[in-house]
Amino acid sequence: MAYTAWIILTASLVGLSCGLIGVFLILRRMAMMADAISHSVLIGIVSAYLITRELSGWHMMVGGMVAGLLTAVLVQWFNSRGVQQEASIGVVFTTLFAIGVIMIATQVGNAHLDVKHALMGEITFVPWDVVQLPWFGSIPEATLILIIVLILVLVAIFTFYKEWKITSFDPMLAASIGIPVVLMHYLFMSLVSITTVAAFDAVGAIMVVAMLITPAAAAYLWTDRLSLMLVLSGTFGVLSAISGYYIAVLLDTSISGSMAFATGIVFMISFLCSPKHGVLAQHYRTT
């Protein structure tokens, strides 16, 4: 497989996984939790490196997932004690991210792990770090991890589709019919954390936030059906990844930044042209 194809495939896997997860974040009015977790996982990744002194491996996933869950627990704890949710998110993720940055500056040293890498990722390096698989040959490690995570996301959505749908729209109803709302919430937060960590090293925090929020927000403008919203959000994520790559090539600029920019273009097109909520459709209905 060509060098460019691996980059596009890896970014598309990020767009598809984050697009699917992002739908439930939007429906739960927790879009800013994507920003919080995508930044706070840094402290988990750095901690995992300091323990193992290895920059790749499943320990990174575990460290990031623990940090993501810690973020969710702390936000919920502060909110239950009277702090507004938005304020709780802001306080928790900025504090944890700052600790991660300080740990990088003071403890990591010359390892290939820095703040710029955390924010923008290094997707151009993805095709060089490969693993050997029987029958498939060499495949970039980041791509393999993202394929596994995508499968995990799909299995989780199909398994808990009904539970997450009800808890997203009406948590009180879910609790009244016996669905463990708190357990479903933290299970979902675990999935968000895993997806975020898997994408973090390749594309950085900025693109993870963009892919978690913007494709889902665009899909929300096109349909009120959850199943179709999931399909559209995943499609928009992949489309943003592919178009963003070619924008980066055309402008000779950051690939991850261009992909994040492409999600904004998709959202603006949806905002203007969607048949029900679009600005143009509303204008024509009132004239």
UniProtKB/TrEMBL annotation:
<dbReference type="InterPro" id="IPR037294">
    <property type="entry name" value="ABC_BtuC-like"/>
</dbReference>
<feature type="transmembrane region" description="Helical">
    <location>
        <begin position="58"/>
        <end position="78"/>
    </location>
</feature>
<dbReference type="GO" id="GO:0010043">
    <property type="term" value="P:response to zinc ion"/>
</dbReference>
<keyword id="KW-1133">Transmembrane helix</keyword>
<dbReference type="GO" id="GO:0055085">
    <property type="term" value="P:transmembrane transport"/>
</dbReference>
<feature type="transmembrane region" description="Helical">
    <location>
        <begin position="90"/>
        <end position="109"/>
    </location>
</feature>
<feature type="transmembrane region" description="Helical">
    <location>
        <begin position="254"/>
        <end position="273"/>
    </location>
</feature>
<feature type="transmembrane region" description="Helical">
    <location>
        <begin position="142"/>
        <end position="161"/>
    </location>
</feature>
<dbReference type="GO" id="GO:0043190">
    <property type="term" value="C:ATP-binding cassette (ABC) transporter complex"/>
</dbReference>
<keyword id="KW-0812">Transmembrane</keyword>
<feature type="transmembrane region" description="Helical">
    <location>
        <begin position="6"/>
        <end position="27"/>
    </location>
</feature>
<protein>
    <submittedName>
        <fullName>Iron ABC transporter</fullName>
    </submittedName>
</protein>
<keyword id="KW-1003">Cell membrane</keyword>
<keyword id="KW-0813">Transport</keyword>
<feature type="transmembrane region" description="Helical">
    <location>
        <begin position="229"/>
        <end position="248"/>
    </location>
</feature>
<keyword id="KW-0472">Membrane</keyword>
<feature type="transmembrane region" description="Helical">
    <location>
        <begin position="202"/>
        <end position="222"/>
    </location>
</feature>
<feature type="transmembrane region" description="Helical">
    <location>
        <begin position="34"/>
        <end position="52"/>
    </location>
</feature>
<feature type="transmembrane region" description="Helical">
    <location>
        <begin position="173"/>
        <end position="196"/>
    </location>
</feature>
<dbReference type="Pfam" id="PF00950">
    <property type="entry name" value="ABC-3"/>
</dbReference>
<comment type="similarity">
    <text>Belongs to the ABC-3 integral membrane protein family.</text>
</comment>
<dbReference type="InterPro" id="IPR001626">
    <property type="entry name" value="ABC_TroCD"/>
</dbReference>
